[in-house]
Amino acid sequence: MAAPAVRVARTAATRARSLLATVQYTHPPNCPCHSNPNHHHHHKTPSLMNHVKRHLATPTDPSREKEYAFEMAASSIRFGPGSTKEVGMDFKNMGARRVCIVTDTNVAKLDAMKQAVEGLTREGIEFTVYDKVRTEPKDSSVKEAIAFAKPYKPDAFLAVGGGSVIDTAKLMNLYTVYPEADFLDFVNAPLGKGLPVVKRLLPLVAVPTTAGTGSETTGTAIFDLVSKKAKTGIAHRNLKPTLGICDPLNTRTMPSAVHASSGLDVLCHALESWTAIPYNERTPRPTNPINRPAYQGANPISDIFSLQALRSTVQYLPRAVHDPDDHEAQSNMLLAATLAGVGFGNAGVHLCHGMSYPISSQNPGYKHAGYDVDHPIIPHGVSVAVTAPAVFRFTAASNPDRHLAAAEAFGVDISNVKRESAGEVLGEAIAKFLVKLGDQPRGLKDLGFKAGDIDGLVEGTIPQKRVLMLAPNLSEELEAEKGELRKLLEESLEY
């Protein structure tokens, strides 16, 4: 008995070829040359069927394939006044026995460190303290910190301080787990190799003492790569802290100028992640999910965090700066920093941050009055905000409605504003906000830069591919991109 025939469903490509064959051979064209199979055209020109076969077999260019998914990752967050004292119990719950505490010389004297040390002592957890973190870290200061941590062989890290401290602790953790790695192995390409972090790192608890970076939520660590005259960093989800303890009591010691500069970082985190290209416009699509970048483009979840962080910053930052006793405003700014961290930690930032890195690293000698350090310093938030009015005038054409929503967060009545005016309106709103905040440099000139420094800043911005790829409206062709960056920096000399 013959076996029954098994029908196999035809693919779309097979059906298309069959249909074309039917059309071609049952209804031949009237042209004599095409109806004659021996005509010379048939020896040189492929048939319609062959054309379709070749088209269907054409390989796609993976580098041009757009993303189709986004991921959300953030540290666990505990928020509340007095929560720092719980950190010893947290490490005991994790099973940690040997903790490396990371801080700087200023924070080492503050109550946040006292609470952390007392918490570990109560639980009988062994610890050592590294208190030499550099504000605005350089690669050399990071390497010194790593060299301290490796021989101690901790089984967990505790970072108590601002973004510089938390970022340094992330890198100490990374290179303790990868003791044989070259320093540039994980550094963002093209300045480093940009290798993925495939190992699980040690537990890291971050206790922020400033309301700005949101580093307690993200897998990003930034430092100055001196040899390249540009800031860069390492970004991977595995770097994010295990727990961020956001205790509003710890930000009460910030001077007014530090409230301002750290708050401006929150402002730009929110604005840039809100206006970044959509996640499904980013290329290339990763061939493996482990290679999906931490900074992915705006997405429906990051949007919620970014827009709320923007609204809170506009409302509470001026109060926190102008009244040292306004603890409600200070607490809300710490929460805004964390919200913005979740937003930009997944959506990413773009032009303000991309240009801020060379602005900070090529500092002509500016020393911010609010920072007690022995070297010139342009605080990160200041270096970011100084280009913001020009940046959002430039990016608005990519999504006028989104830029108008941002302007509305600044209190602008947008009911009668034309969409083509979105950039001008938002840029003006940002500039007015910065001026009213007080004591802010009104452009690059106030930081000591001159028109002759612009080319160097452009060259320092170009390697920041990780963030520039998320910038709306920016050209992909190198010379055009340089021209656009040069114009933005020229417009940022003063506002």
From TrEMBL:
<protein>
    <recommendedName>
        <fullName>hydroxyacid-oxoacid transhydrogenase</fullName>
        <ecNumber>1.1.99.24</ecNumber>
    </recommendedName>
</protein>
<dbReference type="GO" id="GO:0005739">
    <property type="term" value="C:mitochondrion"/>
</dbReference>
<dbReference type="GO" id="GO:0047988">
    <property type="term" value="F:hydroxyacid-oxoacid transhydrogenase activity"/>
</dbReference>
<feature type="domain" description="Alcohol dehydrogenase iron-type/glycerol dehydrogenase GldA">
    <location>
        <begin position="75"/>
        <end position="248"/>
    </location>
</feature>
<dbReference type="InterPro" id="IPR039697">
    <property type="entry name" value="Alcohol_dehydrogenase_Fe"/>
</dbReference>
<keyword id="KW-0496">Mitochondrion</keyword>
<dbReference type="Pfam" id="PF25137">
    <property type="entry name" value="ADH_Fe_C"/>
</dbReference>
<dbReference type="InterPro" id="IPR042157">
    <property type="entry name" value="HOT"/>
</dbReference>
<dbReference type="Pfam" id="PF00465">
    <property type="entry name" value="Fe-ADH"/>
</dbReference>
<dbReference type="InterPro" id="IPR001670">
    <property type="entry name" value="ADH_Fe/GldA"/>
</dbReference>
<keyword id="KW-0809">Transit peptide</keyword>
<dbReference type="InterPro" id="IPR056798">
    <property type="entry name" value="ADH_Fe_C"/>
</dbReference>
<feature type="domain" description="Fe-containing alcohol dehydrogenase-like C-terminal">
    <location>
        <begin position="297"/>
        <end position="470"/>
    </location>
</feature>
<dbReference type="GO" id="GO:0004022">
    <property type="term" value="F:alcohol dehydrogenase (NAD+) activity"/>
</dbReference>
<keyword id="KW-0560">Oxidoreductase</keyword>
<dbReference type="GO" id="GO:0046872">
    <property type="term" value="F:metal ion binding"/>
</dbReference>
<comment type="similarity">
    <text>Belongs to the iron-containing alcohol dehydrogenase family. Hydroxyacid-oxoacid transhydrogenase subfamily.</text>
</comment>
